[in-house]
């Protein structure tokens, strides 16, 4: 409970006596009104100045418990345009109770205003009510006027000691990408559920923890200090809880298996894109976490930006534009142009009550539509809608718009201003991850503005077959509402390759170019286009010969894919008859179905940590069993390699907060975490062994560094087998993903039934380059000769003991690497599910002999670039390693 003190000396009256229906009817909130005798307005409590009206006649203060107090000097004083007022504080300033806020000239006000009576009220009445108001009496500055009671029953006090004392908790942001949208949403959701107000202090600025937008605007990066502040009983525990939550926030998984050039922007069928089979890294726009970056893509991006300048003049109605590749592929079709009309907004409101009601109606309408859309969406589309749902109720955005409405502005003007102020702040951080959220904010801005105007949410025309959408920019909500079966491609004059639209387009399997420049806007409706999102070119109205050539390439590609799909279910052998098994890496039941449809022969790696990513409690044995059994069923008896939890490093999990570590990649990870929390390992092993039939499953242990770790897990496994009366032996494998396990592979392999090489981590640890490091992304290359030599040592050790060795890291999904791996002796690959057909068809063209000599040469080279150059040069149809196209 908070006591508000009189800001003025004078006569305190009930609000009903205010000669203005907005205040009298409590449309802005409940409180009291003071007819002043003094000329200085004082702070009624400790807090922060939220706003000072441009005409300086009103001030809003946010108390530490979160109550927002509006002090409005006089009635109709806005018309004085600041005459007679002097503001003594600024927005954002911290004030103490009794501190002077405004000075005003009583004579000027008495002459120019309808009344001097000054309402003091609580504007967030949904969360706070008032009690014990003292009215009908003379008051002095500082007299207690009424109490503010939190609707949630909070007993926090703004300024008294004891249980109400302010608590602060400072720690370092552990997340690799700082407090970006998802962590901000996690914090905001936690804060909204607390009775006590929580503030986050960083870089000398404060954000209300209930507002994801304000949290993002703090620009908190990895390693920055953040301080959580709260008041009241239980505040310490609440802050501790929030801190643990932040420490445990999971960064999105890396595009671990994603092969260069096809992963983050892989062309998937619309069905696959929306079926949740999409790489989680795509959904979150984590391009920087690609295991290996596609050099051609980087080049295209660079050239694209250079091209953008070239595209600036003059706009082209035919010819060619250069763009940045946002989703790879080739499309031929007709232009459907989308001219975005700016939504006109009138500044002046039609009464505070009317505008407030309209604002709530429009938000209700948009929220209801988003909720409906969310029910039918999955994957990246769902992520976009979730972001919009978060923002529509963002505490700070909504409060800011309401404040503007209370100053007499229209709801549309208020919402636009609130959104654009936040968007500007996010842009100014210079962080591309935050800038991506600007797309979402601007999208939501127009959704609410259209709802205020009573218009339909999108103005996208119905698409003809083979439509290539051409626009200045595209809003994510517009894209998800399009008929993906008719959309052949997307060309945007603006946009960026990591925007949500780019991510969605990739998930839908729609080729897209962005940053084409203003030339794209001159494209005429219905013009033929060739969109080459492999090279970064858009040909506008190409001549018949060029069009026919593009059609032919497209037809050949489709045919090749069809042929590959048709042969995908046949066992895969090299041209000289050596059997190579092609399995799939999985993280869900949906992916298992996609894998089987694409001819996968089993699952070579089930990343179990991704099955229960967003939870804040550990999954039970039954919950795990249900998932594993579902995947085993979807695989229809094919082998299922279940990896025990690989938590830690860049895969923290909310339900298992790990101690703060200087260098998490070198800390508690993989099997180390499981042995640190044997209770969790036991539950997981029990769930795995209960899958029916038990012989379908194999257990794979991540991050093994020595045989002792394997023996420790085996002991527990034997106990669990006894508990469950399982007599059959269970196959156990070790991942070789640390240099130590490769170097002593001969000793490791003695303890297990098979090995599986995790090239993503093996590359990271061998090259001492963080696999999530954006700057180093182009150098973290599994084709580095050091990595290849470790793979060769591992395969030789396994061969000597006649044990199987598979590769399940991203290298196995790379066409350039596959011949080398086969040449090194690898006979089982576990790959991205949708790539199984393409890789099988590649393998069928190879001879082991040619692969061996390629691999031997690769081992002796100096750099990854040299190995890539050799692979590219060798893998030509003329040299017999690749089929003629
Ligand atoms: C790897 O490191 O190559 C691997 C397959 O494991 P993850 O990518 O899940 O760390
Ligand atoms: Mg790994």
UniProtKB/TrEMBL annotation:
Alphabetical UniProt keywords: Cytoplasm, Kinase, Magnesium, Metal-binding, Phosphotransferase system, Sugar transport, Transferase, Transport
Entry annotated with the keyword Repeat: no
Source domain of life: Bacteria
GO molecular function, one term: phosphoenolpyruvate-protein phosphotransferase activity
Pfam families the UniProt entry points to: PEP-utilisers_N, PEP-utilizers, PEP-utilizers_C, PTS-HPr, PTS_EIIA_1
CDD domains with a match to the protein in the record: PTS-HPr_like
Record keyword Cytoplasm present: yes
Boundaries of every PTS EIIA type-1 domain copy: 20-124
Biased composition (Basic and acidic residues): 300-311
Principal EC category: transferase
SUPFAM superfamilies tied to this protein: Duplicated hybrid motif (SSF51261), Enzyme I of the PEP:sugar phosphotransferase system HPr-binding (sub)domain (SSF47831), HPr-like (SSF55594), Phosphoenolpyruvate/pyruvate domain (SSF51621), Phosphohistidine domain (SSF52009)
UniProt region (Disordered), positions on chain: 253-320
Compartments where located: Cytoplasm
Cofactor requirements of the protein: Mg(2+)
NCBIfam families on file: PTBA, PTS_HPr_family, PTS_I_fam
Family of this protein: Belongs to the PEP-utilizing enzyme family.
Protein name per Swiss-Prot or TrEMBL: phosphoenolpyruvate--protein phosphotransferase
């Amino acid at each position: 409970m908070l006591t508000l003190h009189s800001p003025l000396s004078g006569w305190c009256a009930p609000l009903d006596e205010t000669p203005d229906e907005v205040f009298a009817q409590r449309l802005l909130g409940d409180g009291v009104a003071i007819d002043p005798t003094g000329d200085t307005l004082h702070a009624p409590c400790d807090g922060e100045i939220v706003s000072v009206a441009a005409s300086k006649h009103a001030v809003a203060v946010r108390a530490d418990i979160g109550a927002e107090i509006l002090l409005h000097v006089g009635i109709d004083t806005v018309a004085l345009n600041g005459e007679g007022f002097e503001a003594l504080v600024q927005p954002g300033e911290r004030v103490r109770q009794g501190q002077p806020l405004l000075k005003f000239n009583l004579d000027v006000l008495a002459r120019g205003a309808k009344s001097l009576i000054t309402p003091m009220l609580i504007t967030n009445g949904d969360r706070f009510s008032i009690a014990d108001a003292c009215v009908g009496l003379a008051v002095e500055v500082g007299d207690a006027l009424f109490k503010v009671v939190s609707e949630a029953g909070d007993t926090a006090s703004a300024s008294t000691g004891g249980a109400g004392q302010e608590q602060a908790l400072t720690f370092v942001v552990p997340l690799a990408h700082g407090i970006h949208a998802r962590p901000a949403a996690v914090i905001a959701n936690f804060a909204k559920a607390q009775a006590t107000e929580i503030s986050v202090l960083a870089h000398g600025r404060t954000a209300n923890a209930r507002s994801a937008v304000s949290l993002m605007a703090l620009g908190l990066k990895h390693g920055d200090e953040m301080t959580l502040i709260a008041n009241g009983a239980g505040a310490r525990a609440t802050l501790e809880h929030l801190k643990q939550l932040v420490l445990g926030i999971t960064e999105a998984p890396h595009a671990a298996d994603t092969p260069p050039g096809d992963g983050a922007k892989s062309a998937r069928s619309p069905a696959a894109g929306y079926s949740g089979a999409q790489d989680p890294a795509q959904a979150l726009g984590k391009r920087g976490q690609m295991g290996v970056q596609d050099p051609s893509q980087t080049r295209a991006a660079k050239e694209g930006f250079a091209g953008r300048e070239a595209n600036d003049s003059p706009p082209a109605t035919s010819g060619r534009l250069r763009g940045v590749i946002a989703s790879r592929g080739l499309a031929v079709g007709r232009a459907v142009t989308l001219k975005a009309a700016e939504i006109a907004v009138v500044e002046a409101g039609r009464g505070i009550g009317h505008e407030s009601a309209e604002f709530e109606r429009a938000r209700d309408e948009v929220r209801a539509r988003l909720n409906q859309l969310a029910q039918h969406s999955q994957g990246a589309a769902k992520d976009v809608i979730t972001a919009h749902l978060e923002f529509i109720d963002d505490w700070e955005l909504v409060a800011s718009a309401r404040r503007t409405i209370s100053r007499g502005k229209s709801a549309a003007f208020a919402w636009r201003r609130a959104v654009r102020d936040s968007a500007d702040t996010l842009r100014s951080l210079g962080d591309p991850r935050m800038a991506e959220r600007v797309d979402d904010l601007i999208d939501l801005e127009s959704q609410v503005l259209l709802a205020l105007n009573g218009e339909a949410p999108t103005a996208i025309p119905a698409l003809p077959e083979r439509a290539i959408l051409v626009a200045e920019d595209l809003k994510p909500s517009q894209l998800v509402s399009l008929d993906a079966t008719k959309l052949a491609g997307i060309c945007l004059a603006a946009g960026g390759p990591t925007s949500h639209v780019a991510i969605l387009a990739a998930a839908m399997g729609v080729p897209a170019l962005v940053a084409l420049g203003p030339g794209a806007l001159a494209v005429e409706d219905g013009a033929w286009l060739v969109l080459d999102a492999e090279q970064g070119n858009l040909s506008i109205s190409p001549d018949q010969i060029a069009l026919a050539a593009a059609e032919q390439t497209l037809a050949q590609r489709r045919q090749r894919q069809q042929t590959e799909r048709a042969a995908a279910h046949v066992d895969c052998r090299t041209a000289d008859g050596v059997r190579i098994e092609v399995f799939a890496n999985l993280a869900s039941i949906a992916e298992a179905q996609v894998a089987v449809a694409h001819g996968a022969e089993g699952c070579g790696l089930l990343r179990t940590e991704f099955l229960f990513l967003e939870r804040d409690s550990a999954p039970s044995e039954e919950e795990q069993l249900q998932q594993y059994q579902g995947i085993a069923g979807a695989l229809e008896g094919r082998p299922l390699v279940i990896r025990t939890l690989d938590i830690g490093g860049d895969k923290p999990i909310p339900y298992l907060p790990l101690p703060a570590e200087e260098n998490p990649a070198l800390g508690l990870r993989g099997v180390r975490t499981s042995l640190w929390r044997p209770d969790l390992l036991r539950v997981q092993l029990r769930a795995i062994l209960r899958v029916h039939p038990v012989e379908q499953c194999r257990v794979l242990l991540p991050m093994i560094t020595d045989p002792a770790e394997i023996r420790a897990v085996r002991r527990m496994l034997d106990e669990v087998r006894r508990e469950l009366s399982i007599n059959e032996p269970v196959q156990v494998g070790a991942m070789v993903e640390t240099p130590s396990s490769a170097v002593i592979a001969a000793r490791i392999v003695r303890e297990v039934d098979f090995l599986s090489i995790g090239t993503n981590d093996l590359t990271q640890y061998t090259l001492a380059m963080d696999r999530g490091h954006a700057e180093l992304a182009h150098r973290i290359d599994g084709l580095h000769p050091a990595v290849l030599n470790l793979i060769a040592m591992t395969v030789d050790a396994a061969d000597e003991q006649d044990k199987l060795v598979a590769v399940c890291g991203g290298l196995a999904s790379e066409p350039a690497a596959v011949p080398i791996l086969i040449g090194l002796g690898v006979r089982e690959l576990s790959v991205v599910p949708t790539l199984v057909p393409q890789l099988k068809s590649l393998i069928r063209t190879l001879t082991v002999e040619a692969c061996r000599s390629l691999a031997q040469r690769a081992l002796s080279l100096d750099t990854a670039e040299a190995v890539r150059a050799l692979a590219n040069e060798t893998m030509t149809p003329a040299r017999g390693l690749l089929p003629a196209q």
